[in-house]
Amino acid sequence: MKKHISAPGANVAVHVLTCLFVSIIVTTYAQNQLTQNVVGTNGQTTATTTSLLSSKGGNISLGGPQFSYIEYDKTTSFKPAVVNGTHGIQISFTGQGTLNGINVTDNGKAFVTNIQGTLHTVAHGVLVSGLGGNAGTVDHIDQAIGHYGADGKVRDTGIILNTRATGNLAFLGNLVGIYKDESYKDGIITMTWFWK
After folding, report:
1. What's the pTM?
2. Which of 119, 174, 109, 177 is nearest to 144 (CA)?
3. Strands 86-99 and 67-83
4. Rounded CA gap, 153 and 130, in Å?
5. What is the C-alpha separation between 26 and 169, in angstroms, rounded?
6. Cβ contacts of 170 within 8 Å, gap of 6 or more
7. Element housing 185 (H / E)
8. DSSP strand pairing (86-99 vs 154-165)
């Protein structure tokens, strides 16, 4: 949904999701250990607390996405920029796609930095569907991590947070998206999967 100069490959997507999974496991383990230690220190029984945390923390599931979306983008400008003292490139983009059977356009800006060979992107865009009575809009904020491949293409993996949705796009209001994109000579292709 957001565009920037990069696009994620399967390896990056797997890496990001693996890191997320590991952080969930580590956080859950640390919380279980902390609770067990506190309860043990206070002289209370740990069986109930431990089983409650284990049963809740061990069954986290995203389930299947509600739907997916493919968008085709073009960058319309690149210019050097400094945000909060960080040097990078500001990119404007415009895109189009079909979302749940609805034709949409996407316009926005992204700020891209390169930190030790890893691209970090923050973007803001607005999806718009049609004109007239039931036209819809969706403001979205995106964050991504990407890299340049050996083939010169940029690949990113990121998340999309929908902050406001109206009209025939209101169904996007409480969804989060995970996306990957890949740059080509003539534009960027982005694939997004949405969950509630």
Report:
1. 0.65
2. 119
3. antiparallel
4. 32
5. 37
6. 136
7. none
8. unpaired
What CATH number corresponds to the domain at position 188? 2.40.350.10
The reported pLDDT for the residue numbered 114 is 92
C-beta separation of 128 from 2 below 8 A: no
Instruction: Give the Cα separation of 161 and 194 in Å (integer).
Output: 10
Domain count, the chain: 1
Q: Which domain holds residue 73?
A: 1-196
SS3 186: coil
Question: H or E element: which one contains 24?
Answer: helix 10-41
Residue located via tokens 């947070």: 161
φ and ψ at residue 152, rounded to 5 degrees: 85, -10
Q: Confirm if 174 and 164 have CB atoms less than 8 A apart.
A: no
> Is 44 strand, coil or helix?
coil
Locus of tokens 């083939």: 151
Encode pLDDT of 12-48 as tens digits: 344 444 444 333 333 333 333 333 333 333 344 344 4
Give residue for tokens 């982005």: 190
* Continuous segment of H or E residues that includes residue 172: none
Which amino acid does the sequence have at 4? H
Q: How is residue 41 written in tokens?
A: 């220190």
